[in-house]
Write a structure and sequence with these properties.
single chain; about 120 residues; mainly alpha; 4 helices; about 60% helix
Length: about 120
Amino acid sequence: RVVAMAGDGANDAAAIRAADVGVGIEARGSAAARNAADLVLTTGDLSVLVDAVGEGRALWRSVADAVSILIGGNAGEVGFSVLGTLLAGSSPLSTRQLLLVNLLTDMFPAMAVAGTPSDDPA
């Protein structure tokens, strides 16, 4: 479990500091609460935290998807290069050709994952 504490007063500073995620509220809060916080809200609206958590989860899923796609594609390229080198005695691709293959095979899947909208509102 992750514990978050939101507060705006000097009396909340110790609890904010002890929480996993401390949230200070700048609009009406004290300097002690803001300094102890990991995250400072510029307005008093706590609903933005729900949006931030949803965006963070969507970002984490996108990064995991991109990494899995890139590892799969690059593993094939490494296998091709190693096998080709073992069979032919030299690399089957020049450095420029390998860079072009990497550009074409990594760029489009990564852009597709990055451009996919989030389907999780929270």
